[in-house]
Amino acid sequence: MKTKNKTSLKDLNSFRVDCFSSNFNIINSEKEIIDFLVSNKEPDSIILGGGTNTLFKNDIDKPILKIQIKGIEVINENNNSILISVGAGEVWDDLVNWCLTNNYGGLENLSLIPGNVGSAPIQNIGAYGVELKDVFESCRAISIETGSLRIFKNIQCNFSYRSSIFKEELKNKYIITNVIFKLSKNNHVIDYSYEPLKNDLKNNNILNPTINDISKSVINIRSSKLPDPKLIGNCGSFFKNPVVDNIKYKKLKKKEDNIPYYKMSKNKVKIPAAWLIESCGFKGLRDGNTGTYDKHALIIVNHGKASGLEIFNFSQKIKNKVLKKFNILLEEEVNIIDN
Ligand SMILES: Cc1cc2nc3c(=O)[nH]c(=O)nc-3n(C[C@H](O)[C@H](O)[C@H](O)COP(=O)(O)OP(=O)(O)OC[C@H]3O[C@@H](n4cnc5c(N)ncnc54)[C@H](O)[C@@H]3O)c2cc1C
């Protein structure tokens, strides 16, 4: 374990907020976590992966544990499927590419999502019709309170849209050290039901896509509409898409006839947060050093010198306006870290 006192967090968060940690610890193994927990009785430690879903509101005095546990290991396989165990500190997209190189199917729709493997279960990352829960077998995690190791099987993680037990009742209670994935070795389930993916493949005359075709197409679409955090600071979607019941949706539809929705279940629909935000006039709006991305209203960007507090305050302006206009309280997808 490496501990540093004054560490700049600018290159460790994709909002590129320029702030400092006064107690920064780089963790390379489960043993280092346990050693840290034995010598630090601080229950409020902050766990950091790639920092692509984290907004630091200010300088951070609480200990930060940056998880860098590495390794990809095959633990079991048969003719059709394979189980791989992956260290929490592996970069997610490196894992996706490793799977594609080995012709293991399951992660291709999740290509190019920034961040690390250990953070993926926290919000059950998802894109283009697939979620982490579809390939997640189990994970190992250490309790911050007791230092004991626990295995969480898929069913125990309570995965749901952009959430899991680690974002709800066990929020900040466990450090995930590795994740086991179940992937296909042949007869891959190719999912291109998501409309933009279907259209991109069609435009490229691909009728029977392979997992590599899916990945390439996802990368095409993502690169054309999402801002690259290396060029402009952002954390992807700032808010979750709100889910409302049919009664509320019908009321909204009376006021705004063109309000889009996706059916979630018999009684629930999901409304695109981007549409709500755009309807409140925020798309591409600049507010000092921050604002929303001109191609996507759900993405808040740092135009260069925004502080965490400035970005946070701007997000609250959006939230208040949407609440006032639509009576919908947006919920943050980004994890906001306060000291
Ligand atoms: C341009 C862009 C596009 C994006 N697109 C998508 C998308 O399509 N779909 C999607 O789901 N997300 C998307 N995201 C969000 C982000 O990539 C994911 O949430 C990703 O999983 C975050 O990984 P991270 O390692 O950077 O997490 P961090 O920001 O480091 O951490 C996120 C949360 O997880 C906790 N955490 C991190 N590591 C651990 C661990 N080992 N154990 C316990 N807790 C931990 C942290 O405390 C924090 O609460 C996007 C982000 C960007 C910048």
Instruction: Give the number of helices.
Output: 7
Strand content: 25-35%
CATH class of the largest domain: Alpha Beta
Strand order in space, largest sheet = 8-9-14-12-13
Mean pLDDT, nearest integer?
95
Please write the string of helix (H) and strand (E) elements: EEEEHEEEEEHEEEEEHHEEHEEHEEEHE
Principal-axis shape: globular
- Specify the CATH architecture of the largest domain: 2-Layer Sandwich
Poorly predicted tracts of residues: none
The gyration radius over C-alpha positions equals 20 Å
Do you know the CATH topology of the largest domain?
Uridine Diphospho-n-acetylenolpyruvylglucosamine Reductase, domain 3
Characterise this structure:
The protein is an alpha+beta fold and 339 residues long. Helix content is 24%, strand content 27%. It has 7 helices and 22 strands. The chain has helices at 30-39, 92-101, 195-203, 211-225, 246-255, 273-279, 308-326; strands at residues 2-4, 7-8, 20-21, 24-27, 46-48, 54-56, 64-67, 72-77, 81-87, 126-127, 130-131, 136-143, 149-153, 174-184, 233-237, 243-245, 262-263, 268-270, 286-287, 290-293, 296-302, 335-337. The strands form 7 sheets. A 5-stranded antiparallel beta sheet has the order 8-9-14-12-13. Helix 3 (195-203) crosses helix 4. The protein is globular, with a radius of gyration of 20 Å. The chain starts with a strand and ends with a strand. The mean pLDDT is 95. The structure holds flavin-adenine dinucleotide. Flavin-adenine dinucleotide is lined by residues 14, 47-54, 67, 88, 113-116, 118-120, 122-123, 125-127, 175-176, 226, 229, 234-236, 335.
